[in-house]
Amino acid sequence: MAGGVEHPPSIFHPIWERVPAGLKSVFTLNGNFDDHSAEVFFDAVICSGIVIVGLALLTAKGKASISRIPGKLQNILEIAVVGLRGMIVDILGADGVKYLPLMGTVFVYILCNNLMGLVPGLKAPTMSNSTTFALGISMFLCVNGIAIKANGLVGYLKHFAGDVAFLAPLMFVIHIFGELAKPMSLSLRLFGNIYGEDNIIASLFGMGYSAWIPVHAPMVAFGLFTSFLQAFIFTSLSCIYVQGFIEHAGHDDHGHGGHDHDHGHGHSHPHDHAHAHPAGQAASH
Known about the structure:
Blueprint: H1 13-17, H2 21-27, H3 35-64, H4 72-92, H5 100-116, H6 129-161, H7 168-209, H8 217-284
Helix pairs in contact: 3-5, 4-5, 4-8, 5-8, 6-7, 6-8, 7-8
């Protein structure tokens, strides 16, 4: 991303300098971005790969070390899973457990990406808008896929049309634009916060570098909290988006159930009157 504070080059800068011009054009999108922005994108790709490989190895090691008497790694992973499960269930209810693999993975991945920026010589992939846009679009596709599965294609489209028939064309357009705004909102919020945080750390680091004074240290400590908070916000909003579609499906099911219930009463009244009428005649006699 161009603009802002000029960040110190990452430890991958020598690799970037040796990247062939033809490959560099991929990261600059054929000259649409400057060299600095392209290098940020390059760093984001490498650091994201490190996070993915690291989490895969950690998961594999944790799975291999499962035992009845848990060790330190198993305890840590179990605490993390229980915490994520509680967060997701609090938002989505008991049925939210089935979304734990998706939402838990998103939370952990974003958190680790955010924390990469606090490691000297590395860059947070989430300070690159290419990473955050990819995350926003991925969640958009996942959430809408969940919505179609929960409501069916017809019910999914009815959700956009609303409940008032003559307003359906207008509401459909409004809801479509609202859905398209969600991945943009998710990505820009995450990008803006992490990019701003890293800019402040870079500025403070530059101020104290010549005098060997770590004036950026308090901001690094605050960055630990911000990294967790932004991962939590992204995941929570994704859960809320899912909840909106799930609740819509639940209301439709409830409505059909109530409709059937009324029919049940409707069938029972003639039956009751049929028995009551002879009884009344007997009483009159």
